[in-house]
Amino acid sequence: MNIGWIGLGNMGRVMAENLVKADHRLFIYNRTKIKAESLVNIGATFCEDPSKVVYLSDVIITMVSDDDAVKSIYSSEGGLFENGNAQGKLFIDMSTVSPETSKSIADKCEKMGAYFLDAPVSGSVKPAKEGNLVIMVGGKKDVYEKVVPVFNILGKKSLYLGDNGSGSIAKLAINLLLGITIQGIAESILFAEKHGITREEMMTIINESAVGTDISQIKTENILKNEYPAAFPLKHMTKDLGLVKNTGTVSPLAKAVEEAFRLALEAGLGEQDVMGITDYLSENKFSKLT
Ligand code: NAP
């Protein structure tokens, strides 16, 4: 199968690499060309614009930042829908975007005689590299079934969830839980620390208790060092919690975490890891939370 891949950021690059290593012919595009170099070195072909990728591929996968990036990649000049190459092709968007964007692109694909799946992922760069993502899929079931072998290379599990937009809804739900969990860990250790329990003691207690999770284990080292190099950047979490809010969700925890992450982003922590919310919530900054 000839596969097209658009978006070679932190996630896209390692995911695309797994497809090349599994002997798929890959046609790639990234706005910043230099990021394609490592993939070209292992056999992928760089295309000068997205419409060329469509021309050469049967399945075209996008993995870019957000709704605006996805809309631009599909609909701008030189984009995926240009030059009449889309008919009969299958487009898969694995970016985290709003269900409305997924549905709108699905409608455009249908009008052009093309197919579309929204298939965002749970798991960050390490699981992506190891092919251990969880993939949540919305669209037509028979279309999903045709590309299960591709999903099996990229992830440890893919789930078909219903019509277009369902994958995006499921992704927002899991990231809402992730945001709540991350902020919960941060608040717990900061509260304990304020009253004389060290971070090390508290992280041991959390990890050994019923509320210890993979995520608390993974983040322990950074919490103890109080250093947060991005695995999953805070700016992406803030975007996702904003998308939850835009669906009309006003549940108490969703509201609280969206506000905290948004303020942390405004304070300049966007490029840090999500766990960097700890830094923002540390004592002298609590007062900024309303
Ligand atoms: P990233 O490292 O910030 O990369 C973003 C990619 O989008 C780059 O290839 C960038 O191109 C491209 N892009 C952005 N705006 C564009 C535009 N207007 N036109 C064309 N290309 C554009 O992001 P990432 O971490 O790979 O995440 C990608 C998606 O996966 C996001 O939706 C994110 O929420 C989701 N996700 C991320 C993680 C994670 O741990 N990082 C985990 C699960 C899901 P340039 O290289 O030219 O900037």
TrEMBL record:
Keywords: NAD, Oxidoreductase. Residues 165-278 form the 3-hydroxyisobutyrate dehydrogenase-like NAD-binding domain. GO terms for molecular function: NAD binding; NADP binding; oxidoreductase activity. InterPro entries: 6-PGluconate_DH-like_C_sf, 6PGD_dom2, 6PGDH_NADP-bd, HIBADH-like_NADP-bd, HIBADH-related, HIBADH-related_NP60_sf, NAD(P)-bd_dom_sf. It comes from the Bacteria. Gene3D superfamilies: N-(1-d-carboxylethyl)-l-norvaline Dehydrogenase, domain 2, NAD(P)-binding Rossmann-like Domain. The active site is at 171. Residues 2-162 form the 6-phosphogluconate dehydrogenase NADP-binding domain. Pfam families: NAD_binding_11 (PF14833), NAD_binding_2 (PF03446). Belongs to the HIBADH-related family. This is NAD(P)-dependent oxidoreductase. It comes from Niallia nealsonii. The lineage of its organism: Bacteria, Bacillati, Bacillota, Bacilli, Bacillales.
